[in-house]
Write a structure and sequence with these properties.
Layout (H helix, E strand, L loop, with lengths): L5 H5 L10 E6 L17 H6 L35 H9 L4 E6 L12 H18 L7 E6 L5 H11 L5 E8 L10 H9 L3 E6 L13 H21 L2 H4 L5 E4 L6 H15 L10 H8 E4 L8 H11 L5 E2 L12 H4 L6 H16 L4
Helix pairs in contact: 5-6
GO molecular function: carboxy-lyase activity; hydrolase activity
Organism: Dictyobacter alpinus
Pfam families: Amidohydro_2
C-alpha cells in the first residue's frame, strides 16, 4: 500500500476547498460538575453539592501519555478543553467556513454501569445545560440529545421532550456496552423515528477488541472500529432497519476504511444463513449504503488513489460526512484530512452535501 503523510497528500495537486462545511463531531463540555446543579432535582442535586459523587469514574478509560486534547485547546483559565465557547468559535467556527457544527459532548452518562435513574437525570441536566450555554450563543451550533440507554423508557421520554426543538438534530448512543439490536432498546428508536432524528453512535472507552481490554491506550485506539462493526451487525441482524424504515444513522469517530470488508462479509453470510434471520428482507449492504453515514475522522493517512479506490469499492459517494473531532489530539482539519486532489464534487459531498442531506438542513 502506498501511504503518505498529511502534507504529502495535499501536495498532489488541486485547489483549496473554499465551500461550506458541516462539522459532524465537535466535543463541547462544561467547566465543572457543579455547572449541572441548577438543572438537577433532589436527591441528584445533593450528590454533587455535598461531594458524594465525584464524576462518572469511568473504569474503561486508558491513560493517554499526552492527554486526549489539542495543546492549544486548553483555555487560559485552566478550564477543560472544549468548555470555552469563545475559544471553540475562534479555533473552529471562525477558522473554517463552517455553516453548522454538531455538538456531541465529552460527557456520556450512558457509560455509568449503575444507578440508572441518576444517569438519566444527568443526561437530562446536561441537555438543558447545552441548550442554555451553547445553543443559545451561536445559531451555527446544533446538538445531540444525550441519553442513558440503560433505561430505554426514560430515554424515550427525553427524546420526546427535546425532539420538537430543531436545534437538537440527533440522539447520541455510545458504542461499547450495549447491543442496540436487542428489542429492549426499541423504545429509543421509536422515539427517534417519531421526531425524525438521526441516530448517531460514538465510541467510548468501553470498546474492547476480540481479545478483550488491551493493556495500552494505543491498543484501544487502534481497535475502535471493532465496536462500530459489532454495532452495525447488531442493528442489521436484529431487524432494526426493517422495524424503523425512516430512521437514518451515523457512525462517528470510528473510521470507515474497514467498511468494504464488513459489507462483503455480511452479504456473504446473509446469502448462506438468512434462514436464521427471516425478518431481514434485504442484503445488509443495501441497508447500510442507503441509510448510514460515517464521519471522516479519524482519516487514515493514505494516497488519493486509495481514497478513490475505496469509493469505487463502496459504489457510492454519499457515505462520508466531515468531522474535526475538536478538541481532541487527532483533530482533522479541513485543509489536511480530505486531499485536494480528490474531484471537486466528491469533496463538496464529503464536506457539506452528505451531511446536509442527513440532517435535512435548509441552507
Amino acid at each position: 500500500m502506498t501511504t503518505t503523510d498529511a502534507s504529502n497528500r495535499q501536495s498532489t495537486g488541486g485547489s483549496k476547498y473554499t465551500g461550506p462545511i458541516i462539522d459532524t463531531d465537535v466535543h463541547e463540555t462544561f467547566t465543572k460538575w457543579t455547572d449541572l446543579v441548577p438543572y438537577l432535582k433532589e436527591p441528584w442535586r445533593g450528590l454533587i453539592t455535598n461531594g458524594a459523587w465525584q464524576g462518572t469514574g469511568n473504569p474503561h478509560v486508558h491513560w493517554a501519555a499526552n492527554g486526549v486534547n489539542r495543546g492549544d485547546s486548553q483555555p487560559a483559565d485552566g478550564a477543560p478543553a472544549g468548555s470555552n465557547y469563545e475559544l471553540l468559535r475562534e479555533q473552529i467556527l471562525e477558522t473554517y467556513p463552517i455553516t453548522h457544527a454538531i455538538l456531541t459532548g465529552q460527557f456520556m452518562p450512558a457509560v455509568m454501569p449503575m444507578q440508572f435513574e441518576f444517569a438519566t437525570a444527568l443526561a437530562n441536566a446536561y441537555n438543558n445545560f447545552v441548550s442554555d450555554h451553547w445553543l443559545a450563543r451561536d445559531t451555527r451550533l446544533r446538538a445531540s440529545i444525550q441519553l442513558a440507554p440503560q433505561d430505554p423508557q426514560a430515554a424515550a421520554r427525553e427524546i420526546d421532550r427535546l425532539g420538537p426543538d430543531p436545534r437538537f438534530v440527533q440522539i447520541l448512543l455510545p458504542i461499547g456496552q450495549w447491543s442496540y439490536g436487542d428489542p429492549f432498546y426499541n423504545p429509543i428508536f421509536e422515539a427517534a423515528a417519531r421526531h425524525n432524528l438521526v441516530v448517531a453512535f460514538h465510541h467510548t472507552g468501553a470498546v474492547e477488541s476480540a481479545l478483550g481490554k488491551g493493556r495500552y491506550y494505543i491498543e484501544w485506539h487502534i481497535n475502535v472500529p471493532q465496536g462500530a462493526m459489532a454495532t452495525l451487525t447488531s442493528l442489521v441482524v436484529n431487524g432494526i432497519f426493517d422495524k424503523f424504515p425512516t430512521l437514518r444513522f451515523c457512525i462517528l469517530e470510528s473510521g470507515y476504511s474497514w467498511l468494504p470488508h464488513l459489507l462483503w462479509r455480511m452479504d456473504q453470510n446473509y446469502r448462506s444463513l438468512h434462514l436464521e434471520i427471516p425478518w431481514v428482507k434485504q442484503l445488509p449492504s443495501k441497508y447500510i449504503l442507503e441509510r448510514v453515514k460515517f464521519s471522516t475522522q479519524p482519516t487514515e493517512d493514505t494516497s488519493v488513489e486509495n481514497w478513490l479506490r475505496l469509493h469505487d469499492m463502496l459504489g457510492t459517494d454519499k457515505l462520508l460526512v466531515f468531522a474535526t473531532d475538536y478538541p481532541h489530539w487527532d483533530f482533522d482539519s479541513p485543509e489536511e484530512s480530505v486531499p485536494r486532489a480528490l474531484p471537486a464534487d466528491l469533496r463538496r459531498k464529503i464536506f457539506y452535501d452528505n451531511a446536509q442531506e442527513l440532517f435535512g438542513f435548509q441552507d
